[in-house]
Write a structure and sequence with these properties.
Layout: E1 6-7, H1 20-33, E2 45-48, H2 53-68, E3 76-82, E4 91-93, E5 98-101, E6 104-107, H3 110-118, E7 122-123, H4 138-145, E8 150-156, H5 161-172, E9 177-182, E10 187-189, H6 191-206, H7 221-234, E11 238-245, E12 256-264
Parallel strand pairs: 1-5, 2-9, 3-8, 3-9, 4-7
Antiparallel strand pairs: 2-12, 4-8, 5-6, 10-12, 11-12
Length: about 260
């Protein structure tokens, strides 16, 4: 059976608004409220959270506000995230020609897909069908980049950071490409515990020590470790932009999820 040409939105109405006008207003409000660094620079990569916009949207917007300020926007964006629902080794990219959000269809970039496959990724829509980690990034990118945007979702399973870094490097070499990692941090600790754990993870990321990031420190740990290893191998710095929890945006302080935003420079 051939793959569907367009993958329908799986997270609309739950993680973010389903109505296009409401979604546009939500993303624009998050971007307007975000404060990019005073010494804004062109990011060589981003690390962003992927929970519901109510909870992690302000943290994600701190990274996207940096992207929105650069003079020449990327036309290709590869987003690496976890496979929450399907266990996979290595990395998987979709066969579909486009992904849909309430803001329209985003084409899957064939050059990025070719580069990913050449670097060892498999082509399989299965891990992507129910997955939200990449999808929640698309409305932000659609509002920032506009109709010239093409993307490559990459589901990353159990993989050595060096192998994932090699994949990221191959994608980054395709002209006009920004590579991102989508991950939340600690899960279901108290606010006080999460702040300690997430500060430790953030510090490990900033010093580019992928081995110091444990398997329970982030749900997208394999994509995160790969991005950290990529930064170290390419001599890029990692800067922390924002670090909060779901309790900071109205969630239960006794059972929080941590969110961090980082940029490679």
């Amino acid at each position: 059976m051939s793959a569907p040409r367009v993958r329908p939105a799986a997270a609309a109405g739950t993680f973010y608004p389903q109505d296009p006008k409401a979604l546009t207003a939500t993303v624009d409000a998050l971007m307007e409220a975000a404060t990019p660094p005073e010494d804004a620079w062109e990011p060589k990569g981003l690390i962003v959270p992927h929970a519901g916009y109510r909870y992690s949207g302000p943290v994600a917007a701190s990274a996207y506000s940096l992207l929105a300020r650069i003079p020449v926007l990327p036309v290709r964006v590869a987003v690496l995230g976890p496979a929450h629902f399907v266990g996979i080794p290595g990395a998987s990219v979709p066969r579909a020609a486009a992904w849909a959000t309430p803001l329209g269809e985003v084409p899957i970039d064939p050059k990025l897909r070719e580069a990913a496959v050449a670097a060892g990724a498999i082509v399989d829509d299965g891990p992507h069908g129910p997955e939200h980690a990449v999808e929640v990034q698309l409305p932000f990118l659609q509002r920032i980049v506009g109709p010239s945007l093409s993307v490559l979702p990459v589901a990353v399973g159990h993989a050595d950071p060096v192998r994932t870094a090699a994949l990221i490097g191959a994608l980054a070499e395709v002209p006009g490409t920004l590579v991102m990692a989508s991950t939340d941090l600690s899960h279901y600790y108290t606010q006080r515990e999460a702040r300690v754990l997430d500060a430790r993870t953030a510090e490990a990321a900033v010093r580019r020590d992928s081995d110091a990031i444990g398997p329970e420190d982030a749900c997208g740990v394999h994509a995160l470790r790969g991005m950290v290893a990529h930064a170290r191998g390419r001599g890029l710095a990692i800067r922390l932009l924002d670090l909060r929890t779901s309790a900071d945006t109205g969630g239960d302080p006794l059972r929080v999820v941590g969110y961090g935003a980082f940029a490679l420079a």
